[in-house]
């Protein structure tokens, strides 16, 4: 009989061992469940709920004032290849066929072929195919000419509207673009990145709360897509006709400051921004608000505002316009090298006389310092030298010397009275002219109507000049169009009232330290309406060289006046601006200087003409 192999002692020892192990496991479990509970919860959240970088959050849309889509999300195929699954023959044939589909040749085709020679399991061939390219790849996979490829749909930023000039998208410089990493660059895309990009979520905290992913919000602009397209077409026509470096335009609501359209030609194709970056990255900059220039005689309206406000002149005050104004060793001349003699102040502005304007500027104060301070103060009231607050990156405040810091000499005062020696943005000028014609309030220019469904609150406009002065300045602008040389023929619109001021400014070549010969900046700023101004329009033709010389040395194929009229007629049509009431007097060309017209005061022959000094 065999003896027993177990024993009570052995059983007790085993039970003791198990009890110790169980106790240790229990202690360890308690340690993890209680002592490390928070850390474990965070670790689990990090593993399970961290943001998924591959998840596609759809970027929000940008729409115009009526809801038309300006920027949206489209899906384009990423083309991937799996070389490790290909035969040797396929590694030769497939990249050759893909080069044809993608339009690659030479070195680019060779580089593509080299990527198929390895045993890599995954190669990105192209990140964004066109729809036609995707269709060709699918056809090749179907007929066997292509193999071991994959098409992966990815969201991309898409600008669906063609611009007003070839190979551009609508409002390209205003909108900007989005890079492949989802970052908005320039314009609205950059300024509204946080709203448009959405939120990937990731979200778990120690209390167990989570943040769900959210899609991008919608940004609605004040611009009208139809007017924007027409503006771009008009600017393009002027750019071609005048052989200009650029042509820029802005259309504002003079009461609210809402931007109805703005553009600069040439623009670019925001759907192909990478190619633009290689070829012409300067096209990304928007000169409407980020670049300054010397505007020339449009600034005479601000000098007129200061002189009328100070009571230095009235519209009918006689002003001496000599051929030359000598200030020490400096001489100021009119563009035609002639003087018009004693003429009403309104005709000094209408005929854009530098010398007459210089006399009035010098008369603003008892001293040059006093006169300079008064002119500069009027500039400040109209926002010249300050940011408009448009809400876009890289806005320029201009180059506006403060006479309180660096005293102006007499020549500085006179030059700046007609827009030389001071640099502004087109947006600043359009805003200032809005205040001149809207009753005297300086609007806050803005391009945002709503953000994510919430209306954008715009600060109230500040009263910067009296309604009476605004009315006088508006009448002066009408007189400029009626009486200026060839202005009426180029500018008047039947059944509507227009007014404004031109500027033809020399351009300083900083490299050569001299004025560019026969190359100028041409500007017109004005308004169109019937019973009141309905739109303020600025057009600028950059660095254009007139074809004529002598008396025609400033004449362009398409003048700034004519360009203004064409844009104004587009605005009338798109914005449905009502005409003058039936039977109302039509705005007509006034007789030449010196011949009184109805409603236009004659020069007071008994009063001494204004010359230098107050």
Using the coordinates shown, work out and report the CATH topology of the largest domain. Answer: Beta-lactamase
The helicity comes to 25-40%
Described by its quaternary structure, the protein is single chain
Query: Which percent band covers the strand fraction?
Result: 15-25%
Return residue spans where pLDDT drops below 50 for at least 5 consecutive residues: 1-5, 37-54, 594-607
CATH architectural group of the largest domain:
3-Layer(aba) Sandwich
Helix/strand-derived category reads alpha+beta
CATH class of the largest domain: Alpha Beta
Shape: elongated
Output the CATH homologous superfamily of the largest domain.
Answer: DD-peptidase/beta-lactamase superfamily
Radius of gyration: 35 Å
Mean pLDDT: 87
> Helix count?
20
Number of strands: 20
Tally of individual domains: 2
Structural overview:
With 614 residues, the protein is of the alpha+beta class. The protein has two domains: 62-221, Alpha-Beta Complex (Penicillin-binding protein 2a (Domain 2)), CATH 3.90.1310; 226-575, DD-peptidase/beta-lactamase superfamily (Beta-lactamase), CATH 3.40.710. Helix content is 36%, strand content 19%. It has helices at residues 8-35, 37-48, 88-102, 106-114, 131-143, 172-175, 187-191, 193-197, 225-242, 273-279, 287-290, 300-310, 345-350, 354-362, 368-381, 410-417, 426-437, 467-483, 487-491, 560-575; strands at residues 62-63, 69-81, 123-126, 149-158, 177-178, 184-185, 219-221, 246-252, 259-265, 318-321, 324-327, 330-333, 341-344, 441-442, 448-451, 454-455, 462-463, 497-509, 514-529, 533-544. The strands form six sheets. Strands 1, 2, 3, 4, 7, 15 and 16 form a seven-stranded mixed sheet that branches. Strand 18 (497-509) and strand 19 (514-529) form a beta hairpin. Helix 9 (225-242) packs antiparallel against helix 20 and helix 12 (300-310) packs across helix 15 (368-381). The N and C termini lie far apart (142 Å). The model is unreliable at 1-5, 37-54 and 594-607 (pLDDT under 50).
